[in-house]
Amino acid sequence: MKGKYLTVDSCPILANVKENNSKTNVKSRFKKDGLPKNDSDYSIGIFPTFVHDTKRVDFFWGWPSHIINDCES
What we know:
Helices cover 0% and strands 48% of the residues. The protein is mainly beta. The protein has a three-stranded antiparallel beta sheet, with no helix packed on it. It is elongated and about 50 Å long.
């Protein structure tokens, strides 16, 4: 691996909590000081999506996952 051309990618890993389900009725869905009850190891995250000229921002409870890829190998 030369490491001359690198790319970075990320994706969210959603926690299995009702706050991530948009069909449930939760009073304070993404409030930082009100952690969901299942596990306290995760945190709130932001996942932006860029399509053409529009930007969409989604919030989620879970973990971020990042990779660095060498494009030549």
